[in-house]
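User: Run a structure prediction on this.
Assistant: Running it now.
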Amino acid sequence: MGHIDPTREVFAAFRANDREGPIHMLNLVRLRKQAAYPDGRAASGAEAYAAYGRDSGPVFRRVGGRIVWQGRFELMLIGPQEEYWDHCFIAEYPSVAAFVEMIRDPVYREAVKHRQAAVEDSRLIRHAVLPIGENFGEVPAP
């Protein structure tokens, strides 16, 4: 069974760490071949995920969200060889509150039904934004 939505406990921990400043959310998404809509409508996973992006996009932008990196998965060099991802991107939000505002928005809540139908498995990993170092493991002082 894939990971599609956060648990209540993890989401509570996410909200409790409401520090100042932006957050980056690394998104790794594997789509179903056929979307799994509860009402049985026919669509591919790609079509359903595109509907999610189209319908949620205005809310994402309104709260100050933006895509800061996007890539196309090519090869798992280190990790489970059977893992692959159809969408790989980092979304930036100005704050934890902005992310929470987005997912509570009624338009977003309707749009997320497309994501739930489309996604077979996913990872959503929150990061603090740090200055960029020149070497592996180097985090320069701000």
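The domain at 8-76+83-128 is CATH 3.30.70.100 (Alpha-Beta Plaits).
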